[in-house]
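Sharing a chain and its predicted structure for anyone who wants a worked example. Both blocks are below, sequence first, tokens second.
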Amino acid sequence: MAEVKLFANLRQFTDKTAVTSPGTTVADVLHALFNQYPALAAAVLENNQPKPHVRIMVNGHAIELGDGLETAVTDTDTIAIFPPIAGG
């Protein structure tokens, strides 16, 4: 199972900083994760795609620069999900 790290306000949906979820693509992992934590899906996705400014990374690499939600993952990969963050 891939490890999924949640940052900032996304942690409130699981009460954890990291969870594990099965799957062979980012989409698979997120689908399994969102089945367990449905409210998290609404915070991360819009029309089955990451919301604007939500960043999903696999091992430090942004998925939008690769295969998007179809990015392949293994049990040793870490997926990080960052919500929009403002500041200055």
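Comments welcome. Strands lie at 2-6, 18-21, 45-46, 49-50, 55-58, 61-62, 78-82.
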